[in-house]
Every structure is written in C-alpha cells, then in structure tokens.
Design a protein that fits this description.
This protein has 364 residues and is of the alpha/beta class. A hairpin with a 2-residue loop joins β6 and β7. The termini are far apart. The longest helix has 21 residues. Helix content is 43%, strand content 15%. It folds into 2 domains: 264 residues, Rossmann fold; 82 residues. The chain contains 16 helices and 9 strands.
C-alpha cells in the first residue's frame, strides 16, 4: 500500500469498491440482527485492512461506513438479543490510533455494538480470530493491496467457515504484469499461458474463474466477480457466500451499478467487440451477456434440462443473473404458449422456503 493512500482523496475506483461494500452491508446486517429468531447469537464483521477510516477530504472509509450503516438500524439493534462485534485491524499502528479518534469524533458509536481493534499482520492475526468465526454469522472484508493475502490455502479456510460471507479486493492486473513470476501466479495457481490468452480487460474474470475452481465440489459455495478499471489496470472485488440469498443480494447490487453485465464499472462488453462481417442471423451477431444468457435459458427450459422454478433459480444465480432477466424469458415463453407454470418466483426468499414445493414447468 502506498504510504500516502489516505492522505489523498479516494479515487473513483476506490469509491466504487466502497459503494458496493456499503450497499451489501445495508442488506446483510438486518438479516442477522433481527430481534426474532436470529440465525446466530453472534454477528461479526471483520475488516482486516481497515485504514484510518477517512481519506484526506473526510470521505468515509470502510470502518466508518460500517458504523454509519449500523446507525440506520439503531432501533433494531436495541431490540435484538444478538451480540454484534466489529473487528478492525490494520498493520500500521498509527492508522488504528487515528481510526479510534475518528470513530470517537464521528458520533457513530452505538450501544450494544462491540468494537475490537488490532494492529497486526493479517497472516498472524487471521488464524487467531478463526475461533471467533466458527459459531457466528460473519462478514469478512479483505481490502488487501495486491494479491498475496487471499492465497489458495486461506481461501479454502474462508469458504469452509459456516454462515460466512466474504468480500475481498484483488489487484488482478498484477497477474498480467508479472505473469512470468511464479511467486505471483502461484498465489492461486494461474499459469502464464492462461493469463496471456486473456484480454487485459477480462483478467479479473479469469481470477474469479480460478478461485471458483478451488472450491471443493461438495462445498456448495458461490462466487461472483466485479471488475474495476483504473487507467489501463483492472482490479476487482470477489464476493463469496454459502447461501443463495447472500449471492442474490450482492448480484442485485452489482446489476444496479452495471445494467449491461452486472460485473464491471466499465464497458467490459464494448472492449471485446470484433470488427467482422455481420451474420444474417441476429443471435450470432449479438454476443452481449444478457441476450446470450436468455437464449441459453430458453433452450434449457424447452429441452427439459430445467424443469422447475427452483432449478431455474439455481441456474440463474450460478450464472450471475437476477430475477428480472429470467422473468422476461418465462413471460415470453408463456405468451407464445410454449410452456405452462403456476406462479413462478425467482426470488430466493420465496423459492428457498423449506416447506414450498418447486413450481413445475409443463412444456406445451
């Protein structure tokens, strides 16, 4: 990390990252601090690279964003039996001291929210705090500078934690710049050939793909990427959740940020357009993400691969889409009298109810 990072205003890419983080916190906290029938008795937020809490212009960093979000749920917090803990760490002690002062001056301190401060190297602190995570609902935010901290070993530990969502930043362009350096590529097992075969603007997609390959088949853990461009460099967030509800919420936030692909703060589709002779068939010319997905979804429904709204929902989430993209296909097929289905739903809160029977699709 540049030593003067917080001595300057946050750049646009940092603000995009923090905006996605904030929006997810607004969705995540109320799920786990509800006063009635809480999922867990303990809720933890871990921010392992927290910084001092503000930039040079006073813009809130991740620790104060978390407190600001919690402040909006003050009444909910007062009525809950859940133990709420915030763990803020930065290896630079002066940042932690400044953060303590910034929190005190912010007016964001809340009764019943416990704040724990650390100033340790992440590699040493992380294993010490794992016992705190094992019987709790956790959100882990790893705003690392670079690529080295979320390696294969730690990633597998993180995704094995129960009731844990994960958001981490990774400088994906580092793999591009140092594709011949095994110390870099071996962090997640990328090869120089894999990196060189990808356009630079798709490097974060490749990183996401490689992390996905590290998930054991039995883990049922979901990942989604969001690419962030700054100049000629591509960075990004990777979100992970063991529950479709968490993934659905994060994807909805991403699609609000990027209405074309739900995965970038730049035109990731425009950068891949090829200047070739157009085909007479529209489906060949249109390789955009949404129409491509919708054509594939329609084919899978009509050929009997997807037979219920539950199966469609799982397919939707695994491919990084949200309900409105599926509803358009279902409405079109019903209008054309190609299928029949009663009251389909493509919202996790409805589809995933244990006592609900999946709505079967009838091909006409």
């Amino acid at each position: 990390m540049s030593e003067d990072f917080f001595d300057k205003p946050f750049t646009e890419d940092t603000n995009v990252k923090l905006s996605l983080y904030k929006e997810y916190l607004k969705e995540w906290f109320p799920v786990f601090i509800a006063p009635h029938k809480p999922f867990k008795k303990v809720v933890n937020l871990f921010d392992f690279f927290c910084g001092p809490g503000r930039d040079s212009e006073g813009t809130l960093g991740s620790p104060l964003i978390a407190l600001e979000v919690l402040k909006a749920y003050k009444e909910l917090i007062q009525n809950t039996s859940v133990d709420i803990n915030l763990y803020f760490n930065d290896s630079q002690k002066e940042y932690i001291e400044t953060l303590k002062s910034n929190i005190k001056d912010s007016g964001l301190l809340i009764d019943k929210v416990n704040i724990h401060f650390f100033s340790e190297d992440f590699i040493e602190l992380f294993p010490k705090l794992i016992p705190k995570m094992e019987n709790a609902a956790n959100l882990i935010f790893l705003d690392q500078f670079g690529v080295k901290y979320v390696d294969e070993e730690r990633f597998k530990v993180l995704i094995s934690l129960p009731v844990t969502d994960l958001i981490f930043f990774i400088s994906s362009s580092t793999f591009n710049r140092f594709h011949n350096d095994s110390n870099v590529t071996n962090v997640i097992g990328l090869s120089s050939e894999e990196i060189q075969n990808k356009p630079f603007f798709e490097i974060h997609r490749l990183v996401h793909q490689k992390y996905s390959e590290l998930i054991p088949p039995e883990a049922q853990y979901l990942l989604a990427p969001f690419s962030i461009k700054k100049g000629t460099n591509i960075y990004g967030l990777i979100f992970g959740s063991g529950h479709p509800l968490g993934m659905e919420k994060f994807l909805s936030i991403c699609w609000k940020e990027d209405e074309e692909t739900g995965e970038a703060n730049f035109d990731i589709q425009g950068d891949r357009k090829l200047k070739i002779q157009p085909s007479l068939f529209d489906e060949v010319n249109d390789k955009r993400k949404i129409p491509t997905f919708q054509r594939q979804l329609e084919d899978k429904i009509l050929n009997g691969e997807l037979t219920s709204d539950l199966e469609i929902f799982v397919y939707m989430i695994n491919n990084g889409f949200i309900g409105k993209h599926v509803s358009e296909v279902i409405s079109s097929l019903k209008k054309a009298k190609k299928i029949k289905i009663k009251h389909p739903s493509f919202s996790c809160s409805t589809v995933w109810k244990s006592d609900r029977e999946p709505q079967k699709i009838e091909i006409l």
